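Can't paste images in this forum, so I'm doing it all in text. The chain is below; anyone willing to post the predicted structure tokens underneath?
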Amino acid sequence: MSTVIRSELSKKNKYYISKHRYYELKHFCLQYYEWQQKYLEMSCWSNRGGFSEKGSKNLYFGDETGRIGADLAQISHNLKIIEDACDEADPYLSSYIFKAVTEDKAFTYLKMVMEIPCGKDYYYGRYRKFFWILDKKRG
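Text version of the structure:
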């Protein structure tokens, strides 16, 4: 994925966030499927009664179950705030917004392949709203 520098939103826009914060949130969303996979792997290992990090040379002394539980809770939280922000941005377009932010799909793809039922201007309004909501949720 190459980073395309887009013009920054005007500070007068109600969904304004800085360019660098936008890119931080965008890359946060692009990790969705990595986190989902890690969550599934950790859940399987924790249910089997043991988990060790791949390639870890450090011995972990302490409550391994607690560490795994905390990691699973953090991953679950990350997944949920992305899903919730999509729903809050627009319940009707949430699946399209979700696809765009987690898989880096452009409006052209959403229009041609997924047949998004709205125009470009309306979609990008909801897309900006999504990142504004996510910014508030992440603090």
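DSSP finds six helices and no strands in the chain. The helical segments are 19-29, 32-48, 64-89, 94-103, 107-112, 120-138.
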